Amino acid sequence: MSILSRSALVALVLAAAACQTGERELAVRSSPPRTDAFPVTGQEAVLSIAPMLDRATPAVVSVVVESSRPARPNPIFDDPVLRRFFGLPDELPPSTSIDAGSGVIVDAANGYVLTNNHVVEDGERIVVTLKDGRQFDATLIGSDPGTDVAVLRIPADGLTDLPFVDSDTLRVGDYAVAIGNPYGLGQTVTTGIVSALGRSGLISGGYENFIQTDAAINPGNSGGALVNSRGELIGLNTAILSRTGGNVGISFAVPSNIARAVLEQFVRYGDVRRGRLGITITDLTPEVAATLASAGGEGAVITKVEQGSGAAAAGLQPGDVVLSVNDRVVQNASDLRARIGLLRVGDQVQLGIVRDGAPRTLTATVRN
User: Fold this and answer.
1) Which of 141, 160, 136 is nearest to 62 (CA)?
2) Residue 27 sits in which domain range?
3) Residues 118-129: tens digit of each pLDDT
4) Is residue 16 pLDDT above 50, yes or no?
């Protein structure tokens, strides 16, 4: 029996781990031939994600947005006498504001770039700068406040894009890398893990199902890429939880499945056409589960069904616990709302429910 060298043994272990990861992550767009996520280089077995970043970072761009906003004079000049004394006009001309964020190229052939709605909101001119220094005026294809996702298009050749990953396959503990333009410094990379899934409560009235990560995300990172160890897109960096405005290890990203669904609707229809099932829902807490004689844990409880709705036609009832949508597990009420909100009018959806302790499957049609 031959004895493997230390470098060869490390390489075999890492290759086995990478194969296990590949079994649970499915790229929507075919990824390039895969290499080890952390290749062993040199005699000292140095672990590095540099090869992955060489492929991924050209797809991450900086986004500069110019907008005009009403000037905000000192409140003292609200006094009409003082305004006349200083010769100020009744209305001051608007001032120009310049804000910076990030974006991700997701379709190199057509020049589509994803970013956040709050990055480009009210923008009059949007300039995208590539890693190689080229700059382009971008066209805003569409912007969706409900998911905080916006789609841009740039007239450029020789682009690099990132493949989407099915974000429903993510698990807490998966490796995560954030790439963006924090504080306008230029492209910056930070690393961490997926800290939690299904976070909500960040966008009032929005369709939330955020990925939480401890990879450092700061102002300017918004719209940038959150990727896995193979350089595939798992989310769009969106928000941080901080009392100081800087990163404290609690950051959030829009899952790639939500971002991709918004992209497809804007490209196909020019807007996001959300449908409704006609239900009111709440989280499945242990207390609620005990009342309904249902197993606790993941899921959402229907508290009301609107008459004449797609839910009513499908036979859904108050007290039903929704466990899955199209064979995808429902984590909580926010998760269910986000999944239904991205379906189009006329789509049929298969719902896995529990009623009176017994599992059932119902099919509903999404309506206006």
Assistant:
1) 136
2) 6-48
3) 999 988 999 999
4) no
